[in-house]
Amino acid sequence: DFLFFWGAVFLITTTLVALLKKENKELTPTKEETKGITDTYRLLFSIIKMPAVLTFCLLILTAKVGFSAADAVTGLKLVEEGVPKEHLALLAVPMVPLQIILPLIISKYTAGPQPLNTFYKAMPFRLLLGLEFAFLVWWTPKVKHEGGFPVYYYAVVLLSYALHQITLYSMYVAIMAFNAKVSDPLIGGTYMTLLNTVSNLGGNWPSTVALWLVDPLTVKECAGAQEHTCGTTLAAEV
């Protein structure tokens, strides 16, 4: 129902924009950005060949490797340890105001000539939070009791998530500000799309690899079955 409602809202609003919004034809650019799909891809390849863009792409594609496991796996491990999914979902509600306010605050620090400074400053804190998330996963089964989890446990999880959101948005807003700053205004749309796509890819592939590595890297012990290992999924089921 939730997805259906917002799907309908998106369809209605985008249709209204298409029907009611008129282009301002007086302010035409002095030069056309591109003439078609082929020209767009030619332009993209010419941008990618630039040494500075190549260096930046390499940076942004590997920058999130250090905290990909903590970001992708922590929530799943907490559920595996018995934390109800509904409770974790409820903890996301207080994050919404924080997610709205954070970009407004952070944008003041990324509006200057060096927006990536905020990105660099936030990175060590986000890496430290990865260690804190690992501790949280280790701590979870130790505080569990018959009735579930104590209130102070959820308070710690909420605080951890809030601090994580601050570092996450600091890096996200900084990258967006940098991409906007370096993009050539004449081909701004194409330039921004390329850099943002690389930025998104830099966040997605490490998380995918981290999730794929969870099972082979998890150490399992067999209880009550000597001379048997639980290294594989089949053996663990047996």
Automatic annotation (TrEMBL):
This is ACATN protein. It comes from Zapornia atra (Henderson crake). Keywords: Membrane, Transmembrane, Transmembrane helix. One of its GO terms (cellular component) is membrane. One of its GO terms (biological process) is acetyl-CoA transmembrane transport. The chain crosses the membrane at residues 6-22, 43-67, 87-106, 118-139, 151-175. It comes from the Eukaryota. Pfam families: Acatn. One of its GO terms (molecular function) is acetyl-CoA transmembrane transporter activity. The gene is Slc33a1. It is a multi-pass membrane protein. The keyword Methyltransferase does not apply. It is found in: Membrane.
